[in-house]
């Protein structure tokens, strides 16, 4: 049985070492309310220090991944009480929401987005903030920011060009043309597009491959990947990779990894 962090965010463990976070408002294609942002952020922060969790999967319930922010929500965010509208409410709201992609990137565990069905608005932020995304063939990526009269948000204008290139990012962000799953895979928005019934098995297969690595190996590699995407030089990137090699070679978990490979068994890590 899944444990519930909030009625609209559920957590479960579909495989050993894998924590799945499901956006659970299927009747709205998992449109987010302010309470959901807080619940998701709380869940991510708890996972950060949970050594039983080696990989995180984020996905949506029902026929959609996330259709963005629920624009019908008029209640101000709980962390900005008394602010019913205007720029101050928006600024206070984004101070919390902006922590979600930053926390996803800061997690020591790799994050996989299993994208089922439509993705719009803030939902695109969750996909881009993940380390790897795989999409069901039913997935469709839509720029809904202009539909609500705003520019891109949640760091999408930073992350999207790094995933697909500046020209494709400009087209996506400045027009309303949707991107289907197969095209998303071709341009690098997702790793691959798979039949709908293979989406979660594919995500779990990726998670199992990651879980074989030592915890520190994954953590340092993830740090280096994201740091070097905005690094100043090849030399600095080499410095960061060298640090990772030196640190990872000092752990007992590395010895366990080598022993498990030699003995043909799954490794058991102790974070030592």
If you had to describe this structure to a student in words, what would you say it looks like?
Helix content is 45%, strand content 16%. The strands form 2 sheets. Strands 1-2-3-4-5-7-10 form a 7-stranded mixed beta sheet, with helices on both faces. A hairpin with a 2-residue loop joins β1 (3-6) and β2 (9-15). It folds into 2 domains: 3-210, 2-enoyl-CoA Hydratase, Chain A, domain 1 (Alpha-Beta Complex), CATH 3.90.226.10; 213-263. The chain is built from 11 helices and 10 strands. With 272 residues, it is an alpha/beta fold. Mean pLDDT is 88; it is low at 1-6. The chain is globular. α9 (215-228) runs antiparallel to α10 (234-248).
Fold blueprint:
Layout: E1 3-6, E2 9-15, E3 18-23, H1 34-48, E4 55-60, H2 86-97, H3 99-106, E5 111-115, E6 118-120, H4 122-129, E7 132-136, E8 140-142, H5 156-164, H6 166-174, E9 179-180, H7 181-187, E10 192-194, H8 199-211, H9 215-228, H10 234-248, H11 252-263
Parallel strand pairs: 3-4, 4-5, 5-7, 6-8, 7-10
Antiparallel strand pairs: 1-2, 2-3, 8-9
Helix pairs in contact: 1-3, 3-4, 4-5, 5-6, 9-10
Provide a brief overview of the structure.
With 272 residues, this protein is α/β, with parallel strands linked by helices. The protein has helices at residues 34-48, 86-97, 99-106, 122-129, 156-164, 166-174, 181-187, 199-211, 215-228, 234-248, 252-263, and strands spanning 3-6, 9-15, 18-23, 55-60, 111-115, 118-120, 132-136, 140-142, 179-180, 192-194. A hairpin with a 2-residue loop joins strand 2 (9-15) and strand 3.
